[in-house]
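Appendix B: a complete holo record

For completeness, this appendix reproduces one full record from the ligand-bound portion of the collection. The bound molecule is S-adenosylmethionine. The inputs are the chain sequence and the ligand SMILES; the output is the full three-dimensional arrangement of the complex, encoded as structure tokens. No fields have been trimmed.
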Amino acid sequence: MGDDDDGSSITSSIYSYVYENGRRYHAYREGNYLLPNDAEEQERLDLSHHIFRLQLGGALHFAPIDRNLKRVLDLGTGTGIWAIDFADEFPNAAVIGCDLSPIQPQWRPPNCSFFVDDIESDWTYARHEAFDYIHGRGMGGSVSDWPLLCRRSLEHLNPGGWFEIQDYDTAIYAYNDPDLETAPRTREWQVLVNLAAERSGRTMNVAHRQKQWMIEAGYQDVHEEVVQVPIGTWTKDPRLKEIGTFQLEHMLSCIPAFTLAPLTRVLNYTVDEVRLIMAGVRAEFTDPKRRLMTKFRFVYGRRPPHAHAHAHAHAPSHSPPAPGDVLPAAPTAEEERRDGPPSPDAIRIRNVRDIGSQETVDSRNRP
Ligand SMILES: C[S@@+](CC[C@H](N)C(=O)[O-])C[C@H]1O[C@@H](n2cnc3c(N)ncnc32)[C@H](O)[C@@H]1O
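The structure of the chain with S-adenosylmethionine bound, as generated:
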């Protein structure tokens, strides 16, 4: 993987898309990635971009990157929406987005370029092409060896440069019901989707492991932020209602994207069986009484700066909302009857010290 050439070597084979069950899939390194790349999927990715930004108060990053950074790499850029927005906001930075699918627009800021490339292949960037910031978002299910990707990213960062992974857990839970007793179809669905991803060699539910992988790869100042996000409008908090509205739409489009190829190709389900499973999950997602939620995670760390490190970290241009410091007590049954369900904001978790208890909650939902 590298940007030594001018990127014009796209051959028609890259556009020889695979069509299956009404969806379109990538052709380059065919089959490595199980989600589609068609217009419907591109809409999902752009919606997810909006949801990530809402959580960051409009920002594109959580890491305290240098405003004067020069080179930025976006791993698995998808529609390129993050890279384009970042290039607009940082006009002095050269932003490179790479992906297996050539689905990025022709129009883009002059400081933004896209490459069809496999981030799991050897990286061929020369030393003078090192990056100040490497970003990957929503990449669970795309990578077979995360520790290797973390090490590679570290090697291709300038001293003091930041690596940031933004992702959501592929683990759903319900308020006061971590075992999803009240949403059995969702529980079955996520077990199957995660199992298929696991068997395909690219585990999907990896967000909760990123922090440890970064530490083991040698990053410094590794930080993880965990944000609980409602699926739907069942919360009282207006900001979370807004995020939950978008997240419900997003989750509804995740159902076919995450289910069709994984279950038919990997677990050998018939399409009719898959459609039945999808209909059950859809019914549960759209039922506000289930009070479903998921977690988004923002994990970042930096390459240790050398004595002559040029990167000087300071606060992000937009400060993301501050996390709650403590885990508040759960409401009593009486309070819940009177006030309705609490907003998940009230149970937002400050990750660094609480990661142990997060693991406990998550592991009950993991297959
Ligand atoms: C869930 S999408 C996320 C897209 C984008 N990062 C975003 O947040 O909007 C994952 C993307 O990674 C790409 N991808 C998967 N495996 C890849 C690989 N080995 N090398 C490059 N891109 C890959 C897919 O084609 C897809 O566009």
